[in-house]
Each structure stands twice: as structure tokens, then as C-alpha cells.
User: What shape does this take?
Amino acid sequence: MNRDSFTQEEQNLIRQLGVAGLPDDIVDVICKDNIPVDERTKRSIQVKTLRRIHGRTEKRPLWLQVAAAAFLAMILVSAVVGPNRILAGINGLVRFVPGFGLEETEQIMLALAEPVKVVHGENEFEINGLLVNDEYTIAHIRANGPSPDSTLFTGTDKQGEALPYLEGEDGARYPLLSSSISYGGTAHASLVFGAIPSEYRNINIALPDASEESGVWHLGLQLTPADELTAAEDLKIASHKQGITVTAFHSLRDNQSVMTLLIQSPREYSLVREVGNTFFPQNEGREPFLQDDRGTEYTLLRKGSTTGYLSDAPYELRFDPADPSAGTFYLSIPEIRFHEYIDDVKVTLPVPDAGKTEHNQQLQLGRFSVTFTGLERVTPIRLRMYVDPGPDDGEILEMIGLNMSHSIKVNEETGRMEYIETEVEPDQNKLTFTVGNLQYAVKGPWEFEIPLN
Assistant: This one.
């Protein structure tokens, strides 16, 4: 392979990376594929790569900084380097960390090699990921039980010491620095502690339990050095659609077939909201579908991010266990729903005195063009704003986020917004608000053939 195999824009990027210190033979070790890449994707890769390079402050060889930066940026849209994700000479620099996704090996010391489930009393704890670097230790935990709330994670022991904390092999304790806890049917916690020594291979998380004499119980975990985790180049089963790359791999856990997905979007401020679509549960064919080479279909039991909320963390689909006679899984993902933050857009609309008036005001919300087509005062204190969310083009704008109390009517067949309603004063003649985020669905399908041996 030589430079003539690359487009002019790709050659420019290679030259820029070369000036920064990338090895001269990098062009010979990029594995090209025949997957089309649009201009927006190329620009995104270029911007992300150079931003990572210029943002580096660690004292390490420049070529290594650039190589890792290039690898991370390109892996975001693996259509450019192909689903095998091979950049020779830097294999192993990026590892898959359960619960977190792809991380540079030099940026982490230890991690949980695979998720762990622990039952304590009436509660079940799933530790989806734990990562240690030289600044902090962070754990993602999901808890189920009769009353899943923050008391499962925070409190004090009988001596009044704050919980949770980490306890090392030598008895040293590392206090909680910060936490994020959400709960409803289940509780999700992201707990951040101080950094622990890289020599540790076992750690305990001390959690509250009023039934224990000490007021505390210990959740024990075994840690793995970063360079022993799965290398990114070994994650070879990928599918590309609408500029979104999804990598999938299978594991058997808790007697369930677990499909772990890494979803990589070129849009920097876009987070995964849902794989599939339960927003309109009456619409068939919008949820992930799994069958094997014998024609057996598998029931989707559970799905969600490993952090339990909007995230770019790995996403899990859980199905019935595989038939022992099956040799291959076929997974299809019809659509993925995203939540994206955009630069604030200020909107001012006239408020009719009564009834409905035609309107034609177009707004550019990120890459979506939205038109307010009509305004109606449905009651003296309620305004309805009719919306045309623009063409689909493989993406359906479902909702927009306003900085005021409002409701949105979405067509249950098409998934498109129809109107927005909010309260107004009886004598109000103008309404001003700000749009700061979007919710949209990207159409696939992303399809995978996953060997089970």
C-alpha cells in the first residue's frame, strides 16, 4: 500500500501526523477497507485526532502520543481503518475495559476484567466496571433489591466513618471523593475513590449494612493489570451504518447471552439513549433481534448502558442463553436512539391572542433544520407550537430540549414531532426560549454474524 491509495484529504492528515512525530511507515500499516466514508466523518476524525495530539501534556515519546491519538480517533469511526482496527506497531496500546469501553493502556493501571455479580442479603449487586489510574479509582455498580436507593451505597458504619470506602490488601483505606447515584426500579452508582497502588490485585468496597454488627459489609473484587485486558484490535466484529460504527461481542453471564456493544459516533456531544426503540412499544421491528444458525429466536430480557443512564459507555443486550447446538448468532439492530447536546439556540415566537395562526420560522438546530409552521393558543394560558422536524435522511428528530416546562406530541407511527405545548400568560404576546439538546433515532440496521465457538 502506498500514499496513492489515499485521498488528498487523507494524505493531508497523514502529513500533519508525520510532522507531529508519527512513524514514517504509518501509511503502510493502515488497513484500508472499501467502506464509504463521507466528508463529515473524515473531518471529524481529523479534528478529534489533532485535538488529542495537541492536548497531550504527559512526558512520554511524542511518536507514542501521536500513534495512540491517531488510533483512538480512527477507531471512533473504524470505517476508515476497517473493522479489523489494525494499526501495526501500536497493537495493544488500547484495551477494552468492561463498563468503560476503549481506554489507552498507559492511562490506566488496573481494571475489573469482567463484570461481577454479588448477592448480599436481599440485594443483588452487579459491578459492571472498575478502573484504576494514577489519579483515582472509579466503579460502576447496579443494585437490585426490595428498596433500591442511595442507602445501598452511602451511609456510616457504627463508628461513624463515612461509607463507602475502598480497603486494600494491606488494610489501607481510600475515601470516597465523589459519587453519582440514580434510582428507580434499580439503583445505579458511579463511585470515585482515591488512586490505589498498582501492585494491588484485590480490593474491597466497604458498603453500609445496618444488619451487620459493624454496620458495614465488604464487596471483594479481583483486579487485572491493564496490559492483560482484551486488546482493541481483537474486537473484530463490527457493523457500519449512517456514520455510526457498532462493535459487538458475546459472553455467557448469569445463564444469559450477553451482547456487549461499543457504539462509536463521529458526533462529539452525542450519547446513547437506547439501542432499539421502546419509545413506541406498539411498533414492531424496532427492537434488537437475535437468532442462531438453526433458526432459533431468542427473547430480549434486558438492555441498557453499563452506567445505567445516558452515556458513551458499553451497552448490553441480554437474551436467553444460547442453544448448545448453535454455532453462530445473527444479531440485528434496527435503530439506535441518541441524545445530543448542541450550542444553545435562542428562539422567539409571537403568541396569538386567540385561535391558530400560520407561521413559517426555520431554525438550524445542530445539523437538523426545524420549522415552526403554526401557533395556536389552545386555552388562554396554553400555547401549541406546530413543528416540521425536516426530512428523515436516515435520522428522525424525535424531540428537542427547551429550557422551560413543556410537553411534546410525537406521531406514534412515524416517530416525528408534531407539536410542542407550554404555558403562557393570558396577556402574553411573545415567547422566548432556548434549545440546548436533541433526541433523535438513527436508522440501521446494524447486522452481525457472531461465532459461538
